[in-house]
Amino acid sequence: MSPVNILYGTMSGNGRNLAHVIGESLESAGFETLVSGLGDVDPENIHDMDYLVIVTSTYGDGEPPDNASEWMSYLKFNEEIQLKNLKYAVLGLGDRYYPHFCQCGKDFDEYLSNRGGNPLLPRLDCDLYYEEQYPEWLSELIKVLKKTVQE
Ligand SMILES: Cc1cc2nc3c(=O)[nH]c(=O)nc-3n(C[C@H](O)[C@H](O)[C@H](O)COP(=O)(O)O)c2cc1C
Questions:
Q1: The ligand 1 atom nearest the CA atom of 57
Q2: pLDDT 10s digits, 8-62
């Protein structure tokens, strides 16, 4: 199986920390992973990926963190791109106090799906207590990936 790319958008580090935790769990489950900031990977590389997990926070008025903005623009404005071979998952980090709760995660999910990507499982929108929220989603992700390998 090709590696699971785990890419994070972050400003203050939560997304990066969680992406590494997810990466370690997937490695323990037997998957090869590549963990990187979205800003450190050319968005065009998405065409070489079979598996992509995006972990991203939201800032401003529902905007992506700075290191995720290039990826967001690439997916939003290049309507012709085809991601039919991509299997993806999105975990949004946010705070319900803000009107555009987890908007960046929602937008990534929408654009990946609109460009033909296949969601592995429903997106998780996490609040500030994300450490309590992500484990169940992560278990489900591992289950789905194991099933995908068997197919
Ligand atoms: C200035 C500021 C603006 C924020 N704006 C939003 C927002 O619009 N929507 C949202 O859901 N969360 C918002 N948040 C919450 C962050 O997304 C949340 O704290 C997240 O866990 C930060 O993750 P990071 O450390 O990976 O950047 C905001 C936080 C700050 C400090």
A1: 17
A2: 999 999 999 999 999 999 999 999 999 999 999 999 999 999 999 999 999 998 9
Using a 6 Å cutoff on CB, does residue 66 contact ligand 1? no
Q: 29 C-alpha to center of ligand 1: Å?
A: 30
CATH fold label, 4-150: Rossmann fold (3.40.50)
With a 6 Å cutoff on the Cβ, whether 14 touches ligand 1 is yes
Q: Which residues contact 105 (CB under 8 A, 6 or more apart)?
A: 54, 56, 58, 90, 91, 92, 93, 94, 123, 125
What pTM was computed for the model? 0.98
